[in-house]
Every structure is written in C-alpha cells, then in structure tokens.
User: What shape does this take?
Amino acid sequence: MDKKIAVIGAGNVGASVSQYLAEANLADVVMVDIIEGMPQGKALDLTQAGPIRGYNCRVTGSNDFAEIEGADIVVMTAGLARKPGMSREDLLNKNAEIIGSVSENVLKYAPDCFYLMVSNPLDIMTYHAFKKTGFPKNRVFGQAGILDSIRFRAFVAMELGVAATDTQAMVLGGHGDTMVPLARYTTVAGIPISELIPKDRIDAIAARTRDGGGEIVKLLKTGSAYYAPAAATVDMVKAVFSDEKKVLPASAYLEGEYGIDDIYIGVPVVLGRNGVEKIVELKLNDEELGMLKKSAETYKEFLKIIGH
Assistant: This one.
C-alpha cells in the first residue's frame, strides 16, 4: 500500500490499534517497541490472521525507530502506568521523558506526519508532543473525548436497552476526573436523553463515564482498558485518511476558543485530511463552561511539573 501508519508501543493498546487498523485495510502498519521481539512477534501473528480476517496490508514490527520513516500517521500508545509508591509527579515526569524521546524520532523520521496521542495523561502528553516536535497544531491531536463519548453512549444504550449505534454523545474537557459529559448534547436516534432517562440516572451515567477507565482497571486488577481506546483511535485515523470531516471530541490546541488559551483539551473538532480542520464552539451554559475551564486550569498546573 502507498500509505503507512506507525504505532509506537506494542502493548495491549498498541497491538489492538494495529489489529483494528489492519482489519480496516487503510495502510501498511509498522509497530515499534523497545522490548526485543514483542512487536515482531505480534506483527507476525497479525499477518497470519490476514487471510481469514480479509486484509492484505503489511504488518511489521521493529525495535528501530528508523522503521517509521515516511509514516503518514504516528499513533503514540507507549508509556508507563502508575505503580505503587509512584507519585503523580513521578509518573508525569517519566512519561514526559518517554514522549519527548519518541517525539524526537517522529520529527527525525516522519516530519510530515499527523501525530495522534493515546498515551496518558493524555492532554498533557499531547501538549508536550506538540512542543517537542514543533508541528503545526492541526497535525498534533489526542484521542480523549471520543473514547469518553463512546463510553457514555454504551452506558446510555445499556440503560435503555437500545442499539448502541443509535446513540450519540459529547464529552468535553480533560481525559480524566475533570471530563465534562454534556447530557443535553446526548441523544438516541436524535431524541435527547433528557426525554428518555430521569435526571438522577443521567447523573449516575455521567459519573460512571468519568470513572469509565478506573472501573475497568479495578475489574482487571492488572492492566487497563484497550479495546475501546483502540477502537476510538482507529475511528480518528479513518477520519483523517478518508477525509470524513467527522465531528468528534478530541484533545486539540486552543487559542482563545471557549475562553481558553495555550492548552490541549477535549473539544469538538472537525477531523479530515488536514487533521484538526476546525474547532467547533458549542453554546455552553455557565455551569458547563465553568467545568471546562476548571478542567483546563487543572492541566495547566500539571504542565508546570514537566516544565511548560
């Protein structure tokens, strides 16, 4: 194929992203990880699944960042999870170090790519990658709100016993405890959920959405979610590759939109062949806007920890 996608990190998220990308037959996929043999082994396994799963793209693995050369999109999934005894500041600094190192290689080998961040803490790492690469803001964006939104959609569908594909949702703000689920922009086949679900249940669903990742971590006990994050990531890749002009929430760089400046945070964007082509400014009420600004201020404090 004449298109190439590089996936950095061959763990559960990176491997799932690679699988979904291969099954979408969008482009050749190269997985890069520092663990010797792991990306090569998973890539070979995915290649062998191709004849049955119906894809013909090449899936390769490497420990050498030079293999991402010429990639059209680089998907960053690598990073550390917080370990016992590790402070939030320690985690921030360690992952910033990883993102910084990878970003240098992205700049070196794929200077014209779109850079899609999946690693956590998502919004902070997206900003860090933006600064490290010096790429235009439209080419650096993060997978955040789309994951939170599909979780919200799934929970609404479970509540009502309806098709999940008939639901639409919008979740703004940071990818974490400060996310802002917008119930009044959430619908089932165009019907606002406020007409279908009592307010106390909507509030409970919104709260469950905020803790969507944490709930899975508690159930798994070791590890975190990867199927839904991977699916959300591939949806964004497809929007760029197919120039879908898709409106979805993503971590994007703000320069005054929503009264917020110089930060990456989850807002609705138009995603197409030029990456983030437009930021959509919804008419938020005072409470919603206040929550979004509070989310932004929280992340600005975290950015100071890693020197921004």
Q: What stands out?
A: The CA atoms of residues 189 and 240 lie 26 Å apart.
